[in-house]
Input
Amino acid sequence: MMRLPPFQYLAPVSVADAVTLMTDHGPEAMLVAGGTDLYPNMKRRQFEPTVLVGLRGVRDLAGVRQPGAGALAIGAGTTLTAVAHHPEVRARYAALATAAGAVSTPQLRNMGTLGGNVCVDTRCNYYNQSYQWRKAVDFCMKKDGEICLVAPGSPRCWAVSSSDTAPALWSLGASVRLAGPAGERTIPIGALYQDDGIQYLTKQPGEIVTEIVLPPADDARSVYLKLRRRGSFDFPVLGVAATLHMDGETVRQARIVLGAVASLPREAVDAARLLVGERLTPELIDRAADAAYRPAKPLDNTDLTHPYRKKMVRVYVARALRQLAGLPDEAAA
Output
């Protein structure tokens, strides 16, 4: 049986208190909300904080509000279940509702939070194992070792972004509000990530994600598709989020974001550019799917083989765009 290591649990009741506690305890402290990913990682000794700053008692972090001008703001402490079932999210931001509802299992979605999934740790077959397993094969660069066991000649870690909600939020043009020792700031969600399996977040030490802000949906159509071995519980081995803004039958603006193909969500810029100013024909969708295939560079570090995962990028992007266009799925036809 794997047990949690000893730690001190602190329970602030405000964001300001949480920031102060994180600043006071420095690198020895970690934030915890639902704990659905943090606690298993602690049991496997991937994380070894001596202090946990719990966010469940910070009421300002939970809930959905409308700040005006058609935008929607979701507290980072809002559970994934609440996000998935919220009527405004389901009606206006379908990709996010689907992504939140696709995370893990109902029990864990009742505990896990949107902010936690946005910041969830990157994953790798050589990293997400017990301490004894990792010791037997020699530790990897991400924890306790010196080389990346997926790409031994590389100077960096290639662990994979495993968030379902991040690609959906990125495609929807969301922003993230952070609070830290230097005050508050708001950044596009894409600026929260960088392509490094260890330092995959750009937020500063002591900063807390407090809120995710979605722009007005207007005429947007969005979808999220997830590939995994089982229909529940599993992390994505591929996620595809697509959002289109339409003028009638013509695409005015498009964004396609891939998950689980790199250490950060990967935007398929060229694929989206092909769609702008055009009608969604089957031929155009196939061209866009081919363009989205190119920036996906999965490695042999998650479930299923990486050639298959790369091949499925083309398939899932085509499915997502066909769904947005109201066309039947070719695989089902």
Remarks:
- The chain has two domains: 8-58, 59-119+160-325.
- Residues 306-325 form the longest helix (20 residues).
- The longest strand covers residues 238-247.
